[in-house]
Amino acid sequence: MPYISHLLNSKVRDSSEAIIGKLDDILVKATPGDYAPVSFLAIRLKNNPDLVYIPYAFVETLSKEEVSLNALFSKIQPTPVKEEEWICLRRNVLDQQIVDLSGARVVRVNDLRIGEFNGHMSVLGIDVGIKGLLRRLGLSWLGLERILAGNLIDWRHAQLVHNKGIQLNLAAKSLTKLHPADLANILESLSLRHGSGLVQALDAKDAAKVLEEVDPHLQKILVKYLGPEQAASILANMSTDEVVDLMKMLPKEEARLFLNRIQKGKVKKLENLFLYEDDTAGGLMTLDYLAFSPEKTVGEAIAEIKRASPSLRSIVYIYIVDTSNVFLGSVSMRWLLISDNDIKLGDLLKNYPISSTLSPEDDVEEIMNVMTKYDLYTAVVLDESKKLLGVVTIDDVMRLLAPKA
Amino acid sequence: MMLCGYLPLKLSMKDFFRRYWVKALFFFSVVGPGIISANADNDAGGITTYSVVGAHFGTKMLWVLLLITFSLAITQEMGVRIGLVTRQGLGGLIREHFGVRWTAFAMLALLVANLGTITAEFAGIAASFSIFDIGKYWSVPLAALSVWFVLYKGSFKTTQKIFLIFSAFYIVYIINGFIVEPDFVQAAKDMVTPTIEWTAPFLLTMIALIGTTITPWGQFFIQSYVVDKGLNIKHYRAEKGEVFLGAFITDIVSFFIIISTAATLYKHGVRIENAADAALALRPLAGDMAQYLFAFGLFSASMLGAFILPVATAYAFCEAFGWESGFNTTWENGKTFYSIILIAIILPALIVLIPKVSLIKIMVWSQDINGILLPFILIFVMKIINNKKIMGEHVNKLVGNIISWATIIGIIIATITLVVASFAGVF
User: Fold this and answer.
1) What's the domain range around B202?
2) Which of the four pLDDT bands, split at 50, 70 and 90, describes residue A162?
3) What InterPro entries does this protein map onto (chain A) (predicted)?
4) Which residue of A has its CA nearest to B101?
């Protein structure tokens, strides 16, 4: 089975053994999740700068030793081809960055392995190792092949991120199978050009999940790159505290441009969060939580959780407040699950120690102390009159403690 | 049910300052790259080469300095523009547009040039410690260790800032330049009258002068910098002004180093054989302290380069060849990245430790290597910046092309002449 580095620039002969030109590129069809079949050979004719495209049906052999056609060149009607509709292996894949889905990492294509699969000549693998590099450089004679480990990625587990529309949409589809955190890491190692293209191709919801995981500096760059128009729908899908952190990094006027595009109700919430310092309970808390009156029953609460679930990142507790929003206590999912449907939420409440709640000015140290002491996954933030302001969840604290992860 | 809480409205002074601070940061983020890159240009190789230029040839080479100020401004501006438009580093761009062979070629050129420069930095460290009678067998391994330690464990950014601030030391050359009462008329005259001696020493020093001012790594550095900062083409005008200013400031400093050494060492026929000789130029300003002042300046300039260059080299290689990079990758995944950094620290340190090598010669000759390799990198830059497919409407204008090609051809001619002249000298 040949590598594309063996094939490119080799002489192409027709059935009369006459050399008609040199192999310039190989065009394959994009087939997500499958080996891409070779569709055309792009051939640079002798004494003619233009490329001709020969359908693969006319190819006799495609090997390291020989590239030949099964008919007389004069008898073959070259097909007009729009290169944009195909993947050109040399021009679009070789030397470009791709995403290795199985390893969730970004690599550069050093060489491509081509071979028969189910009777079709197809691209089978991507060489991303030193071996491929040496082969491309014509240094295989060094004999390092035996020492070096090969590094071949299955074509089906690779995703192109080239700037072409169709491919990006395909990319977006297969990439969403990855965990948002892995996808964020990939975004960080792609060139900015490809990375921002990728974010644009994802739908707003997925893009929001990924963007939340990306490091703040890149977040800022990407959002600025997308501009208010496109970023608005992504921002609207991000949790409020993340949006606030992001907006805080932008100059005031710019932040306003972005906020203007987000729906009214959400903006109101956002503006409130702007008031607090970053590393305090107020700055860390989220406003995306569920609060209920003590008069509601367990059944009603569960129905509401089901309805609101898609728009909330996580639900570990629900919070019980009176009509003027004074915090009465919290109920865990576990209690909801094991209680009868007609029990009132108010009856599930236990007295909570006031020292297990936070005030907005509390710093990270204080937050950690409270959470550790009372074994909390989430801690509520209350104002002086015990009104519920927001909730700090453990993942926001963890992010502060391990910013590099 | 209620989805969210209610909040009292309060506006604090803190809030106001935070906004203001963000603005100030934004300002600095734009002001950064040109000045930093230009400042880092005056590293160990820089100070030494400029000193040698002035000490051995007086003000005769000032016309070269004037011309390459324009070259520096234009080449750095091109790097900024490519970075702003493509939002990609030079290594990645070369790989994607010229294929793997040209990439290997460009990277080899960069590697050799950078290893040369890092060697110069360690030589600078050795030379500055030698002023305090501390031998290089102590200072160099210690410096190499601390560079690795800070890169691996510490904060690269903070360290970079500290040494950047230290490098404000160059101001002493400007003050000194006035105290020595140099012949400004002669200097101005030399600046506009090209004089050239067709001898190997003159050409060697001249190429070093070019190579220390415009460097291959500087070209990679400035482009990566604007990409990493997330700047885009909106910032072009501000960036351009900043880069031009940076080029101007660097060469003002270079001008005064040359003037200072010309008015002191050249006048008395002192040739620079070691750091102590070069330090003599600061005597008019600092008196007996000149030695220590010079040692301090040389040391911090060298350390700055010794920090930036191994990392810059590793990033460029990893980008071009697709290896994982960055200090938050694990040893297993980032093997190549860390190996390149280690090699780029250890190998140069070992070269400096060879007994009896002349530290001054290392510092000057490494700049020659940079100068000789520079045209190759610049040709890639020219091919990229004139490619409409890559740059769109931001391709080079005629003036930019003329100055860049003149620089490239000028260096090539000088190099060829140097080779011919040194052979002619031998026979």
Assistant:
1) 38-426
2) low
3) CBS_dom, CBS_dom_sf, Mg_transptr_MgtE_intracell_dom, MgtE_N_sf, MgtE_transporter
4) A137
Alpha-carbon distance A111 to nearest alpha carbon in chain B (angstroms)? 10
Fold assignment, A176-274: MgtE N-terminal fold (1.25.60)
Going from the C-alpha of A254 to that of each of A34, A243, A379, the distances in angstroms are 44, 14, 32
- Partner residue facing B10 (CB), from A275, A288, A296: A275
B contacts of A361 (beta carbons < 8 Å): none
Cβ separation of B100 and A97 shorter than 8 Å?
A: no
Q: What is the pLDDT of residue A319?
A: 92
Under an 8 A CB cutoff, do B321 and A133 touch? Answer: yes
Please give the pLDDT value at position B360: 92
Residue B2 pLDDT > 50, yes or no?
no
User: Least CB-CB distance to A269: which of B4, B19, B86?
Assistant: B4
Which of residues B6 and B225 earns the better pLDDT score?
Answer: B225
**Domain residue ranges of chain A, discontinuous segments joined by +:** 4-89, 176-274, 291-401
The number of folded domains in chain B is: 1
| CB spacing of A192 vs B88 below 8 angstroms | yes
CB pairs under 8 A between A and B: 103
Question: Taking CA atoms, what residue in B is nearest to A223?
Answer: B230
**φ and ψ at B356, to 5 degrees?**
70, 10
At B394, the pLDDT band (50, 70, 90 cuts) reads very high
Contacts of A383 in chain B (CB under 8 A): 7-8
Q: B interface mutation test: which of A133, A192, A249 has the most B CBs within 10 A?
A: A192
Question: Which of B98, B140, B127, B414 lies closest to B294, judged by CA?
Answer: B127
- The verdict on B88 touching A (C-beta cutoff 8 Å) is yes
Q: Is B121 inside a domain boundary?
A: yes
| C-alpha distance from B139 to closest chain A C-alpha (Å) | 34
The mean pLDDT value for A284-300 works out to 88
Distance CA A271, CA B378 (A): 49
What architecture is domain A291-401?
Roll (3.10)
Asked whether residue B214 is domain-assigned, the answer is yes
Reported as a single tens digit per residue, the pLDDT across B38-95 is 666 778 899 999 999 999 999 999 999 999 999 999 999 999 999 988 888 999 999 9
pLDDT for res B12: 42
Instruction: Give the domain A4-89 fold.
Output: SH3 type barrels. (2.30.30)
User: 3-state secondary structure string, A189-208?
Assistant: HCCHHHHHHHHHHCCHHHHH
Per-residue pLDDT at B337 exceeds 70 = yes
B5, B11, B322 ranked by CB distance to A108: nearest: B322
Per-residue pLDDT band for A157 (boundaries 50, 70, 90) equals confident
Whether the CB of B13 is below 8 Å from some CB of chain A: the reply is no
Question: Domain containing B197 — which CATH number?
Answer: 1.20.1740.10
Residue A77, burial from CB neighbour count under 10 angstroms (0-12, 13-18, 19+) = exposed
Nearest CB among A94, A287, A292 relative to B4 is that of A287
User: Which uninterrupted H or E stretch holds A219?
Assistant: helix A216-237
The per-residue pLDDT for range A88-120, each reduced to its tens digit, is 899 888 998 888 887 778 889 999 999 888 888
ipTM surpassing 0.85: no
The answer to whether residue B5 is domain-embedded is: no
Distance CA B93, CA A367 (A): 46
Q: Are strands A317-321 and A291-292 parallel, antiparallel or unpaired?
A: parallel
User: Strand A111-117 and strand A120-127: pairing?
Assistant: antiparallel
Find the length of chain A.
405
Q: What is the distance between the alpha carbons of residues A218 and A215, in angstroms, rounded to a whole number?
A: 6
Average pLDDT, chain B: 85
A249 CB neighbours in chain B (<8 A) are: 22
Residue B427 has pLDDT above 50, yes or no: no
pLDDT of residue A170: 63
Q: Which of A129-143, A248-262, B53-67, B278-292 has the lowest mean pLDDT?
A: A248-262
Is A192's CB within 8 Å of B92's CB? no
Contact residues on chain A for B22, CB-CB shorter than 8 A: 248-252
Contact yes or no for A387/A281 (Cβ under 8 A) = no
pLDDT at residue B41, as a whole number? 72
